[in-house]
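Quick one, probably user error.
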């Protein structure tokens, strides 16, 4: 009978692999289908596709169709690193640096305010245990405004608000994960709270994460200087995202902080000195696709995991947690915003801007992953998961869907349609001028009949005049578009300067990157 068992075991393993693959393909098909439909039908375009995926997942949960079991390890080790890396890769260090004080205040002190408020409030108002209060507080301190920032980009909302929200989320996730790990031992009764020990452990987690992330980020940056193979450089960024996270967690550091550090360095330094513009574009498009791909799966699976009976059982606690979290968010955003405005000499964060930051502080995949990672030995595990799920659903479905009306009410909606039209006209003008140059070159080289070429030139020049008239009309009716055009030119000039230094470094004529000269010379709009 032993030979029968040996023969059956591989067959069962193959069957399990095949079933898991089918489930994964089903999830992938549904998620990408929903994401695609959200772009096809105009009625759905104003709703972030991540929220539509969540709604579809909830619909599947209502009819009790479970796509796949979602484990916290799946989110933390497979989904989280690419999402963090993509956000860090795309955020501009110059913008992040100019707002580093409010970002750090919101990401660090804001987490403390949220945790303390939920710990105290849930115990006093909901009668929750210390373990429940600690772990719910730590889980819900992680913001995940991916839906809001995607909406910001579509609507052309001020880039500073996008930077503040993305920057806070990047560092906030790391701080929240570290806080959760520190408080888990207290909740399980394995440790006693000691302020000095907690602060020391926090500093160690963060310090190791930053150090390791910096080491890997700069190492890969200098490595990519030695060759110019886009697919290899693209693969290195993918390996660095996962490798940094895993190594940091293994050595006792913060994997989240490490990935964010690596992404910031590669996106702002490594891509400039080690990648030519074509490679940089290839890598950026790869990460844009990967983030879309991962988000499409994560939000569908989150909705699919909801257990409505538990939400009903803990409805009162969920309601109290929502109230406390929104109030704590208001205290941290407005209070720390006031402190930031007083401490910095730059442009203040306006009250309408702070209002969007307050309402746009959604909770998502990180909060859920932390709640699901609570050990099953803890008696309050189901309560913790249910409360976190309930609050997350409220933030995504209520706050997420009302962010655009709030932006409109606060008069913060951007002029993205106008900017897009301006860019299209500029592109037409550039293209037609290139066509003219080519026709004149053909005449000079006598490669085409001159009369035919002159006729084509007349047609193109007529079209060019129409484009120029449309452009002048647009600029007259929307004078603010000139500031946008000036900003685009400034960014292009700075990129040309940086790329030139990178060419000298790749050629071996320079060993270190030169400090940019134009950064402080060209006026900012």
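Nope, works fine. Designed sequence:
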């Amino acid at each position: 009978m032993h030979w029968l068992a040996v023969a059956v075991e591989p067959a069962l393993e193959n069957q399990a692999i095949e079933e898991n693959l089918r489930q994964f393909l089903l999830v992938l098909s549904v998620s990408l289908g929903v994401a695609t439909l959200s772009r096809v039908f105009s009625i759905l375009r104003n709703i972030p596709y991540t929220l539509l995926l969540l709604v579809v997942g909830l619909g599947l949960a209502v009819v009790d169709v479970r796509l796949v079991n979602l484990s916290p390890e799946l989110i933390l080790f497979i989904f989280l690193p690419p999402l963090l890396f993509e956000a860090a890769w795309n955020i501009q260090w110059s913008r992040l640096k100019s707002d580093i004080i409010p970002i750090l205040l919101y990401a660090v002190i804001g987490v403390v305010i949220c945790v303390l408020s939920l710990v105290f409030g849930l115990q006093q108002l909901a009668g929750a245990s210390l373990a429940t209060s600690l772990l719910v507080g730590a889980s819900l301190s992680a913001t995940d405004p991916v839906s809001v920032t995607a909406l910001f980009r579509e609507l052309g909302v001020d880039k500073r608000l996008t930077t503040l929200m993305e920057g806070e989320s990047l560092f906030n996730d790391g701080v929240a994960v570290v806080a959760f790990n520190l408080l888990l031992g207290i909740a399980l009764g394995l440790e006693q709270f000691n302020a000095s020990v907690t602060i020391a452990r926090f500093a160690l987690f963060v310090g190791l994460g930053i150090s390791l992330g910096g080491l890997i980020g700069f190492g890969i940056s200098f490595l990519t200087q030695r060759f110019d193979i886009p697919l290899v450089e693209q693969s290195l960024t993918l390996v660095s995202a996962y490798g940094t996270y895993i190594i940091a967690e293994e050595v006792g550091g913060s994997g989240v902080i490490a990935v964010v550090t690596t992404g910031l360095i590669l996106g702002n330094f490594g891509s400039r000195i080690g990648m030519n513009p074509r490679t940089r574009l290839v890598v950026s498009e790869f990460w844009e696709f990967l983030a879309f791909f991962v988000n499409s799966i994560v939000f569908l699976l989150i909705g699919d995991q909801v257990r409505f009976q538990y939400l009903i059982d803990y409805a009162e606690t969920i309601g109290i947690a929502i109230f406390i979290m929104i109030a704590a968010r208001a205290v941290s955003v407005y209070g720390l915003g006031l402190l930031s405005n007083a401490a910095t000499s730059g442009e203040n964060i306006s009250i309408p801007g702070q209002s969007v930051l307050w309402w746009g502080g959604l909770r998502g995949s990180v909060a859920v992953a932390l709640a699901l990672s609570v050990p099953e030995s803890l008696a309050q595990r189901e309560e913790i998961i249910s409360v976190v799920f309930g609050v997350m659903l409220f933030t995504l479905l209520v706050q997420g869907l009302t962010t655009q009306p709030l932006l409109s009410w606060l008069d913060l909606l951007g002029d993205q349609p106008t900017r897009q039209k301006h860019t299209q006209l500029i592109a037409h003008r550039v293209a037609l001028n290139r066509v003219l140059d080519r026709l004149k070159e053909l005449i000079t080289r006598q490669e085409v009949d001159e009369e035919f070429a002159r006729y084509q030139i007349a047609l193109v020049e007529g079209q060019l005049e129409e484009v120029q008239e449309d452009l002048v009309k647009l600029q007259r009716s929307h004078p603010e578009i000139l500031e946008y055009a000036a900003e685009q030119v400034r960014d292009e000039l700075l990129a040309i300067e940086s790329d030139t230094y990178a060419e000298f470094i790749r050629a071996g004529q320079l060993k270190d990157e030169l400090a940019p000269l134009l950064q402080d010379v060209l006026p900012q709009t």
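The chain has 20 helices and no strands.
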